[in-house]
């Protein structure tokens, strides 16, 4: 079975590729990226590294040739992703791929105000309509994004948030990669399944404030703000206005309970417990 990973030079793509090369014969692994030179080390481990860009659909024919199962890693081109992902799905069909796993978001319904929900929903719909077997890997919000949040809170002496009383189960990229690699390496049992890929526990603003304070050995009380005040604070701290609004949208999604999934997918598919925010943040701050 030839296994393809797109976006293989991104953070998640590279880690998934590394995990997959530990699980299967490297001769069966195809890594597709816009930046092949960055994967020279994985080519050295026996993977077939190929150039491919969703913005250049013709490049995907050679990139996906011979592939049977493919991990489609959602791109970072927010706003343009539906066309990109459709191009990748169409190319997978042309290449004779039979199963595509896609990195989505939990609960990508119309009511979910997370700013990326619409694009993930549209991609899931396109994949379901493609006739291919599919797996939705609905990755929760990354635990790694809590590292700069913790650092800012410690620098400012408080943790401003717009999470209200909402809670979510932040997941480490490491676990997202381990789950994706497990799905690629498995038999057909994950076909036509949607999995929430989450961290081990639901955390609210108070939990995060405690974790950040303990990691930095300084109190960082949580300060609840509404969306506008949260975004304005981010802008005042140097975040571009569109990004500040984007971040506020995720906080609103958590506050309104749209991202309150806590699943056992990591444990079930990898055989080990999911990594928590505490481990990710404490580890990063200890190294800083
Ligand atoms: N769950 C979360 O909290 C969260 C947070 C941020 C992002 N995400 C999503 O998860 C994805 C993976 O996360 P990450 O941390 O690995 O992000 P990242 O390091 O920023 O990687 C961006 C990814 O987009 C791919 N990409 C960009 N333009 C592309 C194009 N034209 N054609 C094909 N691929 C393209 C890149 O592939 P190459 O560079 O190898 O070509 C790379 O895999 C992100 O792209 C985003 O969709 C999730």
Question: How would you briefly describe this protein structure?
Answer:
This protein is of the alpha/beta class and 288 residues long. The protein is 45% helix and 14% strand. It has a 7-stranded parallel β-sheet, sandwiched between helices. The protein has a two-stranded parallel ribbon with strand order 7-9.
Record the SSE blueprint:
Elements: E1 3-5, H1 11-23, E2 29-33, H2 40-44, E3 48-51, H3 59-64, E4 69-72, H4 81-95, E5 99-104, H5 117-129, E6 133-139, H6 146-156, E7 159-161, H7 173-185, E8 193-197, H8 205-216, E9 222-224, H9 227-236, H10 241-255, H11 265-270, H12 277-287
Parallel strand pairs: 1-2, 1-4, 2-3, 4-5, 5-6, 6-8, 7-9
Helix pairs in contact: 1-7, 4-5, 6-8, 6-12, 8-12, 9-10
This protein binds NADP nicotinamide-adenine-dinucleotide phosphate.
Structure write-up:
45% of the residues lie in helices and 14% in strands. It has twelve helices and nine strands. The strands form two sheets. The protein has a seven-stranded parallel β-sheet with strand order 3-2-1-4-5-6-8, with helices on both faces. Helix 5 (117-129) links the parallel strand 5 (99-104) and strand 6 (133-139). Helix 1 (11-23) packs across helix 7 (173-185) and helix 6 crosses helix 8. The longest helix has 15 residues, at 81-95.
């Amino acid at each position: 079975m030839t296994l393809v990973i797109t976006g293989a030079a991104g953070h998640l793509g590279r880690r998934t590729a590394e995990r997959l090369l530990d699980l299967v014969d490297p001769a069966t692994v195809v890594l597709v990226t816009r930046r092949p030179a960055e994967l020279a080390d994985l080519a050295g481990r026996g993977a077939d590294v190929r150039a491919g860009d969703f913005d250049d659909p013709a490049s995907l024919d050679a990139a996906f040739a011979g592939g049977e199962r493919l991990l489609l890693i959602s791109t970072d081109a927010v706003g343009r992703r539906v066309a990109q992902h459709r191009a990748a799905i169409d190319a997978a069909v042309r290449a004779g791929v039979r199963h595509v796993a896609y990195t989505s978001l939990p609960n990508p319904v119309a009511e979910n105000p997370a700013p990326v929900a619409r694009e993930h929903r549209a991609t899931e719909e396109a994949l379901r309509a493609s006739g291919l077997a599919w797996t939705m890997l609905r990755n929760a919000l990354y635990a790694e994004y809590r590292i700069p949040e913790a650092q800012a809170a410690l620098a400012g002496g408080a943790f401003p948030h717009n999470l209200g009383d909402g809670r979510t189960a932040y997941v480490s990229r490491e676990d997202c990669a381990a789950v994706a690699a497990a799905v690629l390496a498995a038999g057909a049992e994950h076909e036509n399944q949607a999995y929430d890929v989450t961290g081990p526990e639901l955390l609210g603003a108070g939990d995060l404030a405690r974790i950040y304070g303990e990691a930095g050995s300084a109190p960082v009380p949580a300060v609840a703000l509404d969306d506008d005040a949260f975004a304005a604070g981010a802008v005042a701290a140097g975040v571009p206005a569109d990004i500040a609004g984007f971040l506020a949208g995720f906080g609103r999604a958590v506050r309104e309970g749209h991202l309150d999934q806590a699943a056992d997918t990591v444990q079930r598919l990898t055989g080990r417990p999911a990594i928590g925010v505490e481990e990710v943040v404490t580890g990063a701050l200890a190294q800083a």
